[in-house]
Each structure stands twice: as C-alpha cells, then as structure tokens.
From TrEMBL:
Its EC number is 5.6.2.1. Belongs to the type IA topoisomerase family. Keywords: DNA-binding, Isomerase, Magnesium, Metal-binding, Topoisomerase. This is DNA topoisomerase 3. The gene is topB.
Length: 724
C-alpha cells in the first residue's frame, strides 16, 4: 500500500501530527502508521556550504582571495544533524512512499528548510503543502483536508533561497574583508549592521547633547491645577526672568475661565499581537529579552497548544478565522479571564471590527488563543505571563471602545493663559480586560495630567491660591532598551530619505523579521558590539568603530528595503531569482573593493597585559553575557576566559547580587559591600539553609554557563544565516 511521507520542522510538531494521523509505531527518526509516515528535521538539516567546500585556499582568510563568488552554490548536510538527515533520506527513497507532505513552518524560512532537504535527498515524486497557524488537533485535521500542491509555493521557495544566497555572498565576503583588512574579529550583514548603526547613532546623539535649563509655571485655583503655555502650546520657558515675572504677575490674583470645553471621545482597543509587539510588551512589563519571549511563546504554541503560530508579523485575522472566535473565547473562559470572556459571549454577536482585516494578513494571522482547553497550572510562571498578555489583548480587541468625556479648561490671568484637563469615564470598554493592570501609556509625555475637576463654567472667576516655578533640564534621547530597539527595527523607515524604499519597509517587516530580530540582538551581544547596562543597550567601542569602517550602504536600512522589494516580487512570480543573485554577486565584489581601498583604522582600546595561553597575543577585556571575560583577538584562536561571573546568589549582608571570581577551588563570591565568601563556605551556607547538594550543584552550573569560544571564523561559516 502506497504511503504518504510527512516532513515537519521539529520532533515535537512531528509527534503532534503523527498522533492526529494515527502514526503510533516508532521508527528510525520517524513515526509509522498505516497510511502516513511522519518524520522531522531538527531545524535546518541542510545548509549552504562553507567557502572551503569550493576551494581549499578558503580555509585560510586572505584578502587576496576575495571576493568569493562560486559559480553555483552548494548544499551540504550539517554535521550535527547528519544522522537525522540520513533517516529522512532513507524514507524518501523507500519504494512505498508515493508522495510527500511539506509540514514545516508555514513561512519563507520553513519552506527553505523543506526544499533544501528534498533537493539534497533527491526527492522527485509529487509533493503537497500543509499550511496551518496552530498545532491543535482540529487545525491539523482541517489542514490535511485542504492540502495544496507544493508547486504553488515554488516562488516562495525561490525568494527564500535567493535571500539565503545573497546573505552568504554579502555577509561572508564583507566579514572576511573587514577581518583581514583591520586584523580584528569583525562581521557585518544587511540586518545586523544597520541595527548596530541605530545604537551608535543614538549614542552619538546623547554624547553631543547639551542640556538646557528651563522652567514651567503652575498655579492652583478653584480646586484644580493649571499649567502655563504660550501661543504655540509650549510650556517650557528658557528665560528664568520671564518665568519669575509670570509667577509674580498672577500670584494672589484672580483668573477667569476663558474657555471650558467638554468633548465626548472614544479610544479603540489596540490591535492583536504580532511577535514584535508581544516581545516589546513582555520586555516592558517583565524585562524578558526578545529571545526569551520567543522561547516561551514557542512552548505555548508547540507544547501546550494554547496559542497560535508565534513568528507572525500580522496583527489581524481573516474572515475564516473569525468564524472560530467564539470557540476560542470559550477556551479562555477560565481563571481570571472567565468573567471577561463570558461577558463577551453573552453579548453576542462578537464585535470583530478591530481584529478582522483580510488585506493585512500575510503568511500568518495575529497571535491569538487556540480553541484548546488549557490547564493554567501546567504553565511555567514565564509562560503564564506571556499567555496572560495574549489572552487579555485578545479579549480587549473583541471589546467595545473605551468611552469618556474630556473637559479642557483655559484659565486666563492677566495676559497669561493656563491649561488643565480632566476625564470622566463613561464606558470602560476594552480597558476592562486589564482592570487596574493597564498603565496609562496614552498620557506619557503630556504636560497636563488628567485630574478630578470641580463643576466649572466658562466665564467663572476663580481665586489663584498658589503659583510656583518648577525648574527642569532638557534630557538627551533615551538609550535603546530591547522594547524600543525592536520598535526601531520594525519601523526603520524614518531614518531613510528615499520615499519609495521607505514605503517598502513600511509595508514589510522592517529590519529582519519577527522570527530573526531576537537572534540579531543576541548576536550584537555575543560579538561584543553592544552590552547591556541594566535595561539599556549600549554600543561598545568595537561596535562604534565597526559602524565607522563598514561600507556606507551596509549601515542603512535601505539595503534591506531594496532586497525585500525584490524578494517580494520573486515570491509573487514577478521577478527572476537568477537576476537578483547575479546582482548580489556584483554587489559583494563592490563591497570587498571598498573595504580593500579603505584608509581607516581599527584600534583595540580594551587590550590587557595578559597573554593568550594558546597563541600568545594580548587578551581583550570584554563584558560578556554572564560577566567580565578575557578574549583572544585572533579570529582563529577563539580562546576565552571568564574573569567575573555575575550570579543570582545574594549577599547575606546587603542582599545585592554576588559576583564570582577565580577558578577551580579558588572561586570566591564577592560583593560591592565588601563581603567575601569562598565557594566551599557558600555551599555550606546553602546546605544549612535547606538546599541539598544536587540543588547547590545545579545552581553552580547555572552560574558558570558562560558563552563558548566563538571565533569569527566559526561564527561566519557555520552560522551564515545569522549574518542577515
């Protein structure tokens, strides 16, 4: 009997699909059934070959060998997943396999995963495509009932492969050119470099900023507080004498309410979540990194079946998904959401005006709950927090608008005008989904805060009971944190002058995709181009210098805009992928020539006097993810040594986090308050506090989870896709 082979992207997804299809017998890297065999990749099983696969000379990094422009790009099986590839290939070559169902992630990257495996394994039989947005049993069954010919997605594959090959050609050539030219471990790419440029540009703005003193004038009158503003609506006064004159002119006098306006307003709910917006809110509320949020979201999607596909850039759903909203509401009518969800269910029909928009849905719709019943106690605290964000947003977007009456007062005293405003809530609407949890983000930066106003009428005269001068200083722009950097990556268009390309970025995903932005940010840290200082992200000297020496085109988001413009046309069958790759070959050669001709310098300003034990070069002092490290500058050496590890252990005196210094048995915890404690003494104290040896050992292992040696050579050749 002929069988169908189903190829998924991950084992967990494969097991879910296998259960639905009745494949219960274990095989080698697969699950077997009467009609289907389900197998899986482990992410990418196949990738583009490293440069040395084309020529032995590329094993060494030499400027004279650049640019590297292979006539035809080769695919190779990745060493770490070679066993699973062989298992998949063996299944594809079985005589009883009649067709293949591509069930990898429904998107450009998922298409690439499957097609490269099929190409390398020599698949030449019919293939179909499963395209679903959640991993529930119902979604899987419906997806298999509406399979599409794989050929319909050929153009999507062509655009994915073109993007991958272009990143190889540009990223690896420029990385090698920079590293050879400046004798430092440097890398560049079309997404990484403009993202770093955003950080460097902001740092320069802060450095050049000169604060100015200013004053504002506030007065109390008639039971409310009002703020002075000029004819242009500005409240800051940069002339102290002028500010003092205003205070003197109105103190102890009377004012007249020259204008009192009452206006009914309504505020629509925010759109449902896409991945970037979710990462942004999770960073603001819980200080989760973009990478952490994606990990928790992936678990909620794959393991718990609680939420839909995470790697989406859409904040809306389509009409067909709207038909399932009632069942999704019923699935979240639990715990803290029960009353909120049931209220919406009782008031049917559901309002979908703020969530349904077919035109704004791309590969996947917004992140929303599935129709699966969820046991909240099975979720980790972190997963619970992400689930809470999504469910409350889901309930909010199905709720009515927030309605209120806003009163604005203009008080005139002498020839000066002062302003106040207040708000009376008429209908809580979507804000009821958040209760007291919602921060009043819409009021950020406003000069007059809402206040409770007494009954007032236009023309009333009021006694001024107090007038005061408030001093302040203008502030520089804030450094990026992960939330604001994600926003800047999603909307880099404001940094561009070309209107057409700006529009392209506004209609695409910006810098990177929702799925890759977390990786890009983490890459900036692991390459020591940026570091975290609390919540702030600050470019290092290495990062600042790199932006200064890299070819100008790579610093701008325009390169990504141009690529996305053409890749979009390729995915729609309106442009040829071969033409794009030919242009990228020429572009890579041009960039290498630019680097070769550069007369700029790169200087390590963090060199120590300690020599590398492997190659003898002086080590660099850097701040890694877990603390202070010494790193060899030689790209092929890769030696790293942890000097100070930032731990989660708390000082018994001041309760601040302890640092760990030293090696082996000489390791010691230290605190800024002066506390010192040997590792052995720490273990005894933990044991006395009730922790057993296994717990202490686990804790210590977590503290020593430092970054592995990660030379530019290894990074750029084995992980080319990170150089997007």
């Amino acid at each position: 009997m002929a069988k169908t082979l189903v190829l998924t992207e991950k084992p967990s997804v494969g097991r879910d699909i296998a259960r639905v299809l009745g494949c219960n017998q274990k095989g080698d890297g697969c699950l077997l059934g009467d009609r289907y065999i389900v197998t899986w990749a482990l992410g990418h099983l196949v990738t583009l070959a490293d440069p040395e696969a084309y020529n032995e000379k590329y094993k060494s990094w030499n400027m004279d060998d650049l640019p590297m422009l292979p006539d035809k790009m080769k695919l190779v099986v990745m060493n770490e997943t070679a066993r699973q590839f062989k298992a998949v290939q063996a299944l594809m070559k079985r005589g009883d396999i009649a067709e293949l169902v591509i069930a990898t992630d429904s998107g450009r990257e998922g298409e690439l995963v499957a097609r490269w495996i099929m190409q390398k394994a020599g698949w030449n039989k019919p293939a179909k495509r499963l395209w679903i947005s959640s991993q529930t049993d119902r979604a899987i069954k419906e997806g298999f009932s509406t399979l599409r010919p794989a050929a319909e997605y050929d153009n999507l594959y062509k655009s994915a492969q073109a993007r991958a090959e272009a990143d190889w050609l540009v990223g690896l050539n420029v990385t090698r050119a920079l590293t050879c030219k400046f004798n430092a471990s440097l890398s560049a790419g079309r997404v990484q470099t403009p993202t770093l440029a955003l950080l460097v540009e902001r740092e320069q703005e802060i450095k050049n900023f000169e604060p100015r003193d200013y004053w504002t004038v506030q007065l109390a009158a008639g039971g409310f507080t009002a703020t002075w503003r000029d004819a242009k609506g500005q409240s800051m006064i940069f002339d102290r004498a002028k500010a003092e004159a205003i205070v003197a002119a109105v103190s102890g006098g009377e004012g007249v309410l020259s204008a009192v306006t009452r206006e009914y307003k309504h505020q629509a709910p925010p759109a449902a979540y896409d991945l970037t917006e979710l990462q942004r809110d999770a960073n603001k509320k819980y200080a989760y990194t973009a990478k952490q949020t994606l990990s928790y979201m992936q678990s909620l999607y794959e393991t718990h079946k609680a939420l839909t596909y995470p790697r989406t850039d859409s904040r809306y759903i389509t009409d067909d998904v709207a038909a399932t909203l009632l069942e999704r509401l019923k699935s979240v009518a639990i715990g803290d959401y029960k009353e909120l969800a049931q209220e919406l269910i009782r008031k049917r029909p559901l309002s979908t005006r703020y969530i349904v928009n077919n035109a704004k849905v791309t590969d996947h719709h917004a992140i929303i709950p599935t129709d699966e019943q969820i046991d909240l106690f099975r979720l980790s605290p972190e997963e619970r927090n992400i689930f809470d964000l999504v469910v409350r947003r889901f309930i909010a977007v199905l709720s009515p608008a927030f309605e209120y009456e806003e009163t604005k007062i203009k008080l005139t005293a002498g020839k000066q005008d002062f302003y106040a405003k207040g708000k009376i809530v008429k209908t809580a609407g979507w804000k009821a989904a958040y209760g007291n949890l919602l921060a009043s983000d819409d009021e950020d930066g406003e000069e007059e805060r809402d206040q409770s106003l007494p009954p007032v009428r236009q023309g009333d005269r009021v006694k001024i009971t107090a007038a005061k001068l408030i001093a302040g200083k203008t502030k520089p722009p804030a450094r990026y944190n992960e939330a604001t950097l994600l926003t800047a990556m999603e909307n880099p268009a404001r940094h561009m002058e070309n209107k057409e390309l700006r529009e392209v970025l506004e209609t695409t995903s910006g810098l990177g995709t929702p799925a890759t932005r977390a990786e890009i940010i983490e890459k900036l840290f692991s390459s020591f181009y940026a570091e975290r200082r609390g919540k702030e992200i600050v470019p290092t000297s290495k990062g600042i210098q790199l932006v200064g020496i890299v070819p100008g085109e790579l610093r701008s988001a325009e390169l990504t805009a141009k690529w996305e413009q053409r890749l979009s046309l390729i995915s729609k069958g309106k442009a040829r992928d071969q033409d794009f790759i030919a242009d990228m070959r020429g572009y890579a050669a041009k960039l290498v020539t630019t680097v070769k001709a550069s007369d700029l310098k790169f200087v390590h300003d963090n060199v120590t006097r300690e020599k590398c034990p492997d190659c003898g070069k002086f080590l660099l002092d850097v701040k890694g993810k877990k603390g202070k490290m010494l790193v060899c500058p030689d790209r092929e050496c890769g030696y790293r040594k942890s000097v100070v590890i930032e731990t989660n252990a708390r000082c018994p005196n001041c309760h601040k986090k302890l640092e760990m210094r030293g090696e082996g048995e000489n390791r010691m915890f230290t605190c800024i308050c002066g506390h010192r404690e040997k590792l052995s003494d720490f273990e005894k104290r933990k044991a006395a506090a009730g922790a057993n040896k296994a717990e202490v050992r686990k804790f210590m292992n977590n503290q020593q989870d430092i970054e592995p040696a990660n030379s530019a050579l290894a990074e750029q050749l084995a992980k080319w896709k990170e150089n997007q």
